[in-house]
Write a structure and sequence with these properties.
The complex is a heterodimer.
Chain A: E1 5-7, E2 10-13, E3 19-24, E4 31-37, E5 43-50, E6 53-56, E7 65-69, E8 75-79, E9 88-95, E10 106-107, E11 111-115
Parallel strand pairs in A: 2-11
Antiparallel strand pairs in A: 1-3, 3-8, 4-5, 4-9, 5-6, 7-8, 9-10, 9-11
Chain B: E1 4-5, E2 10-14, E3 19-25, E4 32-38, E5 45-51, E6 56-59, E7 62-67, E8 72-77, E9 86-93, E10 100-102, E11 106-111
Parallel strand pairs in B: 2-11
Antiparallel strand pairs in B: 1-3, 3-8, 4-5, 4-9, 6-7, 7-8, 9-10, 9-11
Classes of the chains: A mainly beta, B mainly beta.
Chain lengths: ~120, ~110
């Protein structure tokens, strides 16, 4: 596709269950970012991928959160043993190679996660 | 510790008038600043940006001003149009990862 896609668009789960969120970046974009927006908050950085490696995981809120990227393309964000405070919109963005000069990040529509 | 702050959660202006959205930051290492626009149920879309070596960048109806000494930037929209109604996020970037630090957003409502 032409833009960043994310699936599912909405996910409702019960507290304690595991969830997987998927991101398909723009073809050829080597940098991939996950952010989340909690109610009434700005977007919060979670993790950055360059290719398949994640040199910056500083935003992951706990060890229940993990992410991987395969083939330099699709990324999956996994949240284990979900808690109600994990409820948020999870956004993925991709860009050309990150570096000294900023490259525009293109965002997907997000996955709205609700933990009951 | 909020490094990027948007102190006005909402702003209402009349169509045709100027909209001014403000943003303050605390980290002097930020070297690139951006404004994103977001509609409900959509991801943010890039609007305009400015490098820290500049103090103004203009693109059509949109102008961003950067005051480094005050650690303040603003977005001017002239003239405002009803289609501009959205949430506007200020963001800043530093370092080789280009990760963005966002403010909490300002909801702009342009009244016809």
């Amino acid at each position: 596709g032409a833009g960043v896609s994310q699936s599912p668009s909405n996910k409702v789960t019960e507290k304690g269950k595991d969830v997987e969120l998927r991101c398909d970046p723009i073809s050829g974009h080597t940098a991939l970012y996950w952010y989340r927006q909690s109610l009434g908050q700005g977007l919060e950085f979670l993790i950055y991928f360059q290719g398949n490696s994640a040199p910056d995981k500083s935003g992951l809120p706990s060890d229940r959160f993990s992410a991987e990227r395969t083939g330099g393309s699709v990324s999956t964000l996994t949240i284990q043993r979900t808690q109600q405070e994990d409820s948020a919109v999870y956004l993925c963005a991709s860009s050309r190679l990150a570096g000294v000069f900023y490259n525009e990040q293109f965002f997907g529509p997000g996955t709205r996660l609700t933990v009951l | 510790d909020q490094q990027v702050k948007q102190n006005s959660p909402s702003l209402s202006v009349q169509e045709g008038r100027i909209s001014i959205l403000n943003c303050d930051y605390t980290n002097s290492m930020f070297d690139y600043f951006l404004w994103y626009k977001k509609y409900p149920a959509e991801g943010p879309t890039f609007l305009i940006s400015i490098s820290s070596i500049k103090d103004k960048n203009e693109d059509g109806r949109f102008t961003v001003f950067l005051n480094k000494s005050a650690k303040h930037l603003s977005l001017h929209i002239v003239p405002s149009q009803p289609g501009d109604s959205a949430v506007y996020f200020c963001a800043a970037s530093a370092g080789a990862t280009n990760k963005l630090i966002f403010g909490t957003g300002t909801l702009l409502a342009v009244q016809p």
